[in-house]
Specification:
globular; 404 residues; mainly alpha; Growth Hormone, Chain: A
Length: 404
Amino acid sequence: MQPAQRTRRPSLTLVITWLLTFSMWIPTFCVPPMEHVLKTELALNYTQASLIFSAPILMIVILAIPAGRFADRWGPQKSAGLGIIIIVVGSLLRSTATDVTSLLVFTFIYGAGLGWTFPTIPKIVSQRAPKEEAGLATGVLTSGILTGGAIALGLTMRLIFPIFGTYQSVFLIWSIPAIVAAGLWWWQIRRQSPPQVATTKTDQPRSMPLSRVLRDRKLWLVAIMLLLHNFFFYTWTGWAPTLLYNKGASVDLAGIITSIIMWVGVPTLFIIPRMSFRMGVRKPFLWVPSIILAASALAALYVDINLSWGLMALVGIAIVTRFSTVLALPVEMMPKEEVGIASGLVLSIGYIGAIIGPLIGGRVLDLTGSLNQAMIILIIVSIATTIIALRLPETGPKGKPSID
């Protein structure tokens, strides 16, 4: 009886964790399709509108390291449980916003929950899967982010906004998945045995793991890699609906085409990590997508609406391949007791790119009325990402073991 119970619990935890990742990013990705609505109703320019999209990312930068340390010491279950409650509160408050100030304040509250919850995912992976399978487990959980993002991008202007007619209603509707996830998460915590806090406690001062992590040059390379990745991804995703709209797509069609990035990413997450696992290498799944994304940014200057479907699919495959590989690297590189703080460092540095990328895109659009210069910047960023990827250590079984 007990063995059967043990085999069911991890799978149930995985399902609920997937729902957590699914729900926590939806309030972010419902913003890009609505940027023209927010711009009009709140009298914003494009740079200011992009801040509504990137504000939650700032909170990841600020909170990822303390959240990672909290998860290392007290366990990711409680850390994620606290974060999802803050997500629910912030998301619900956004549905009451009546001006840009209140919307920004409530968005930062939601972002605080996102910044506290997201760094716990690698820690959960490290507890549930051996290091050699970290990419596979990370892929499964990351598919929740992509599915939520795809639904938010595709349905916000196609279904939700036309029915309810206000951006406040959109924020309210997209709060429901987080409410469900929060309820299930805390139900799961209460039904399980007390967390094994003893495994995370050591006789060392709390500052020792952080100082050790900060001296790890390989981890800084991973952080820079994620920064460049997020610069591309959030600039592309945040402004793709506007890019397509400027090419002649309707508002709802632009959101649907952009959502292809996320939809193709879901099967990619189940195929690519398995390929990487069987091949025993990680680096090709970093530098090859970077080259593809450089070519895609160049192609975006010339393709029409009909070809945009295929372009978005190609970008989705490349972005998701690279992201799932990068996200698994701290799990593969670091001792289990330091995965939380290591992931916090990588996320804190890496998501700076997610802030500055969309802001630069918005500024370019304000100044020139076009996103062409932004695409050129993305080409340069992708070339830089390729160089960093080639300098990263190979963490796969076929690579040389790294020695500090």
